[in-house]
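Moderator note: this is an archived Q&A kept for reference. The question asked for a predicted structure of one protein chain; the sequence and the answer are reproduced below.
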Amino acid sequence: MIPTIITTCKGRLAFLKQTLPAMVATALPITVVDYDCPQGTAGFVTTNFPNVNVVRITDRPLFNHAEARNLGAGRAATDVLAFVDADVMLSPGVGEFVRQNDFMTDVYFIGDGSLDATVVGVCIVARKHFARIGGYDECMAGWGYEDIDFYVRLRASGLERRFLPHHLIAPIAHANDLRVAFAEEKDQEASHRLNRLYSRIKIDMEGIVRRNLSVTERQRIRTLVEDAITTLIAKSKGAVVPLSIPLSEERFGGVARFTRSLTYSLTLA
């Protein structure tokens, strides 16, 4: 089965103008998500590529890559999804590659980050696997790690990771400030660290309870993580801040209460 190419755009129209023709050349269906793009992505695509499906999202001053990708997946009509960033160029061989592979088995394909970290966000996965783990986690705010979080959960669900042939995808180089142009946190590494810590704890929790956490549960964890980091950075080097995530609570005849929690220690290096 062939995939739908899903790409998102917020302030990346200059790149999309370069990469979208290559996507169209694959002869695969395409969905472009205009995530409140100030450059008029939707208008450009509908005018110049009328066969490309466009999703228009408004009132999103900050970019949430996870939500943008999930919205694109929701509008795609195929059983296989191919997520490609607007600043990634596809080679003409992509169309042949996807037609020669069975993506409905227990595998997913990603860009090889060991060769170039900027292509690690490229992913081809069956919709059934995407849906089973709840898609991308929209509680991942700011820049970084939402793709790694997605892959860790895919592997935890039993899928095999495979790398796309490196000659099929090539990133367009650009300055790092573009990555956080529409993020509240402008420190790229700080954003990545926060998302990584939140992801690790959330995935620990999901392993214990053996289910996907609800949005409310995930948001509660993220708030606790943010508060713990804020407390930590206000302290001196070597300081330790505990982070406790409640698991469950039981009462024994009104006499005693038994509380379980997952506890971490954050140390300021």
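Archived answer notes: Residues 188-267 form one domain.
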